[in-house]
Amino acid sequence: VFISLDCAEPAPLAEFWAAMLGGQVMFTNATAVGVRADSVWLAAMHVPDYQPPSWPAGDIPKQMHFDLGVTDLDAAMAAVTPWPTRPARRHRPHRGRGPAASAARR
Question: What number of other Cβ atoms are within 10 A of residue 20's Cβ?
């Protein structure tokens, strides 16, 4: 499981979470920085025109999503149909890893 955090500047956010979780930065590219800790992968993802959440006011909601790595993307997408989700996108986020899918609640 990847926990992906939307942000304006991935590197500082990833470095912060690496320090907080006792992890280390494992990859960096133009739009994302990945952190591996003992029990979780975390990715800080650049979003153009990102606006941070206005918590607790809620005018701009909190922003994060989960990416699940799978070996058979079509089977994985079929397996989530009983739940109220919709596919957000299909992609291969990291060379050498299986395909991934992001889902959002309906």
Answer: 11
Token pair in block for residue 23? 């992890």
Q: Is the CB of residue 41 less than 8 Å from the CB of residue 3?
A: yes
For the segment 50-96, what is each residue's pLDDT rounded down to a tens digit?
A: 998 888 787 988 776 666 677 888 888 788 777 766 665 555 554 44
Q: How far apart are the first and last CA of the chain?
A: 20
Going by C-alpha positions, the residue among 71, 55, 74, 75 that lies closest to residue 63 is 55
Cβ pair 7, 43 in contact under 8 A? no
The Cα 106–Cα 86 span in angstroms is 6
Determine contact, residues 105/89, Cβ cutoff 8 Å: no
What is the C-alpha to C-alpha distance for residues 26 and 14, in angstroms, rounded to an integer?
10
pLDDT at residue 103 in the model: 44
